[in-house]
From TrEMBL:
InterPro entries: CobW/HypB/UreG_nucleotide-bd, P-loop_NTPase, Zinc-reg_GTPase_activator. PANTHER family: COBW DOMAIN-CONTAINING PROTEIN, COBW-RELATED. Pfam families: cobW. This is CobW/HypB/UreG nucleotide-binding domain-containing protein. It comes from the Bacteria.
Length: 368
């Protein structure tokens, strides 16, 4: 019998870091753990980072788990069969919701003889949550993105407030208290996947009964689709060659994301996330990310030294039109090329907006 642990949460919440950190913690306890990444597009920055830390990794691309249910099952079966794992952790696309009805219940109903599905966990960025809360306190109408964010919280069995190391302790305690009052059926855990603070409490929550299993979430799929359609999605590959000797891959990546972050702030464009990897010819790589407009890039990994050639992958999810994101990324790359003395060549821009969510299954709670 294997255990399947589903993660959801808005873009930039730190799901991948949470997944990786908890997988390593479970391995330390003697488990054999695999993970699955998920995205609307292909060429995922996060998958490369996860594979640098874990042996058993799969990905489901081209849509969320709810719309790619058979692909999810195939990935689980493949990992169990090839790597003999006993735990699979999977993170859904950051713009996805209604997972209790479209993923958790179908897995329990159709595969419950072979699989224990752990409580559904929503990973939360505290600063993102506070931003949505401030908008509500100002009396602003609830945006479609805020609606999507609230639905992710409403269906959670476990709410994992991540990145607690980024806010003051008093503020963190107030936030946890407020979430426990707002979502009394959920287990609310504070943690930092980066520092491992609270990770043991999160693992304990996964072993407890699911609190929201019987809740039938009322999802307005038109609003859900509208929220996803506010975001332009880009996955782009680039080949990089030094214009003069060698270049610093981390400096180039930082310049790209600095420029893109500044552009988003100037255009009041919400950044779901912008992530970038640069892999050198010897297999070393840099990974940086931005989760809010105007912020400085955060390094997850930095390549050592310089290189003469490299390959980059950009994943950007920004609330704007696809054509605007194409231009913004192209301008950011041009600026970074000039700064780092690089000649880059890229695949054609492929920004798009997700299609209307059409889950394979949508099951009501037992007895409903």
């Amino acid at each position: 019998m294997i255990t399947f642990i589903p993660l959801t949460g808005f873009l930039g919440a730190g799901k991948t870091t949470t997944m990786t950190t908890t997988a390593l913690a479970l391995q330390e306890q003697g488990h054999r753990v695999a993970v699955i990444t998920n995205d609307q597009g292909v060429e995922l920055v996060d998958t490369k980072l996860v594979r640098s830390k874990l042996d058993s990794v799969a990905e489901v691309t081209g849509g969320c788990f709810c719309c790619r249910f058979e692909d999810l099952v195939e990935a689980i079966v493949g990992l169990v069969g090839s790597d003999n794992v006993d735990i699979v952790i999977a993170e859904a696309v950051g713009s996805c919701t209604d997972l209790q009805a479209t993923v958790v219940r179908p897995l329990r109903q159709y595969y419950g003889d072979h699989m224990v599905v752990a409580p559904l966990t929503t990973v939360v960025d505290p600063l993102r949550h506070l931003a949505f809360e401030r908008a509500a306190q100002r009396g602003e109408p609830e945006s479609d993105l805020s609606y999507l964010f609230r639905q992710q919280l409403s269906e959670a069995d476990v709410i994992a407030v991540n990145k607690l190391d980024t806010i003051p302790a008093e503020r963190a305690e107030t936030l946890l208290t407020d979430l426990r009052a707002q979502y009394p059926k959920a287990t609310v855990v504070g943690c930092s996947a980066t520092t491992r603070q609270g990770i043991d409490s999160l693992l304990d929550a996964w072993r407890a009964p699911a609190g929201n299993e019987a809740v039938d979430l009322d999802v307005d799929y038109d609003r859900y689709a509208a929220a996803e359609a506010q975001l332009a999605w880009m996955n782009q590959e680039l080949d990089l060659v030094a214009a003069n000797g060698e270049f610093d891959a981390t400096a180039w990546a930082r310049a790209v994301l600095d420029h893109l972050s500044t552009w988003a702030a100037e255009h009041d464009a919400v950044v779901g996330h912008a992530k970038l990897t640069v892999e050198t010819k010897d297999g070393d790589f840099t990974k940086l990310s931005v989760t809010r407009a105007g912020e400085q890039p955060t390094p997850d990994r930095e390549a050592g030294g310089t290189t003469d050639v490299a390959r980059a992958v950009v994943n950007a999810r920004v609330a704007c039109e696809p054509e605007a994101l194409d231009r913004a990324v192209s301008e950011a790359v041009t600026a970074a090329d000039q700064c780092a003395q690089v000649v880059s060549s890229a695949t054609a821009p492929v920004s798009f907006k997700p299609s209307y969510p059409r889950p394979v299954h949508r099951l009501a709670p037992a007895g409903a």
